[in-house]
Amino acid sequence: MADSERPSAPGCWAACTNFSRTRKGILLFAEIILCLVILICFSASTPGYSSLSVVEMILAAIFFVVYMCDLHTKIPFINWPWSDFFRTLIAAVLYLITSIVVLVERGNHSKIVAGVLGLIATCLFGYDAYVTFPFRQPRHIAAPTDPADGPV
């Protein structure tokens, strides 16, 4: 039983490290880490704003696992590029609104740091939305199979 589990572990680790080196993997990993740091800052000052960081960190982790394990090709009934685009776009808008509200309130130092990091998260999520916009991605056009001058 233990022998059958060993070959899958290096494959899983290789998939994780290979995806982590791509641009999308780096963006998702940075989003997870930044949401965790913002969560810590909000929890130290005002726990009322921490739910945004928790939700976005969980969603980024889910998309990281989906893309890492290649589940986006195995689950075709979900449009993954559009889902990821709307996730990042909504996160950028919500982080912008939350950060402006937090910075206007003028709280303690951890609240100010969380607000500034929220503005950085706005830029990160906005860039991720720009990169994952589905119409920007190149489409594959199938080569014609019939001769161009008609049947022979």
Q: Calculate the terminal CA-CA distance, rounded to whole Å.
A: 60 Å
- Report strand %: under 5%
Q: Characterize the overall form.
A: elongated
Which blocks of ≥5 consecutive residues have pLDDT under 50?
1-9
Largest sheet: none
- What order do the helices and strands follow? HHHHHHH
Helicity, as a percent range:
over 70%
What's the gist of this structure?
The chain has 152 residues and is mainly alpha-helical. The chain is 74% helix and 0% strand. It has one domain.
Characterize the structure shown.
This protein is mostly helical. The protein has one domain. It has 7 helices and no strands. It is elongated and about 75 Å long. The N terminus is likely disordered.
Keywords:
disordered N terminus, mainly alpha, 74% helix, MARVEL-CKLF_proteins, single chain, 152 residues
